[in-house]
Amino acid sequence: MLYYLFQFLDERYNFPGAGVFQYISFRALGAVITSLLIAAVFGRRIIDILRGLQIGESIRDLGLEGQMQKRGTPTMGGFIILASLLIPALLFAKLSNVYVVLALVSTVWTGMIGFLDDYIKVFKKNKEGLQGKFKVVGQVGLGLIVGLTLSFNQYVKIRKYAPRLLSTSNVPDIYTDIKSTLTTVPFVKNNEFDYSSLLFGFLPDSYTWIVYVLICIFIITAVSNGANITDGIDGLAAGTSVIIGLTIGVLAYLSGNKVFSQYLNIMYIPNAGELVIFCAAFVGACVGFLWYNSYPAQVFMGDTGSLMLGGVIAVLFLAIRKELMIPIICGIFLVELVSVIMQVSYFKYTKRKYGEGRRVFLMSPLHHHFQKKGYHEAKLVTRFWIVGIMLAVLALVTLKLR
After folding, report:
1. Domain extent listing, the chain
2. Share of the chain above pLDDT 70, in %
3. Binding region for Mg(2+)
């Protein structure tokens, strides 16, 4: 909103300093500062409201050290993240940008799914919360919206440049903006993959959108659930999301910048740079939430926050066509999710075969396994963050290491 206001003041009245709002870097800085201020100023008030409503976490005794001391800690703190993310994004981003609109829609959509889950747990006293099938329906719905938008919206294109005859030529670039189902493959020299190749020639390329929508549904569901599972100890999901959000912001800036995208020989996506503002607000919101969620936590984000974080991260990756980097950058989410799948699958298999269920880990998700081995919660979270930083650096290295 502020972008349009200062654009009007600049064009109509030549207002001093109004032109600075045209710069992505300035608006990103404004977004991150605003999100931090909102979390700092209103976070405590939101926690007090949640405590006054007796919205406390119901803790199951899993035999983990210090676990039962958390009983009664306010949950649904994801509202702190939502407010700290949405308000700066609405203030500083271009609201006509299709990628920003998708990010905002995904934030509200997945936040509502998480809120329904928390509401049923807290107010309906149902520890199971929203049934899994309804969560999946919501995630599939978002996948359809994102997949169809990225497939058919007229403003979602990539730019292809014609090769220059002479490197020193002053002739302007010749380019074409095209609809495409190309994505980026890490560690590969010519690192572009077209989803139309998955049709294997059995169907015309016009049906590629079906494959792409299914991929969007799978990615959003997987990453959203991965973030939800990771939210098991103080600061783990929020801190990991900060690292991921920073990495996506860098990738969005490079992908949306003509000079850097050509230098790095990566896909140039017109208007994708606007997502840097959203990523800045996202990072600021998560850091602000960490002020209250770091060990020992004063509030839990609940599914209102965790499902939202994963859903938004997935949509951002899809928007900048870097979704194949998710296993690297979101490695923490992936390992946590896989550990649960392995544990449940192996337990059911051994119970059916031997009459007694056996386990791969002492407890799943993986962070509980390490807790059972005696690692302190704070140290465990810090080490997970360090691994997350290493994965983020590895992902950025793939831009040159092919």
Report:
1. 98-162+174-277+301-401
2. 94
3. 228, 303
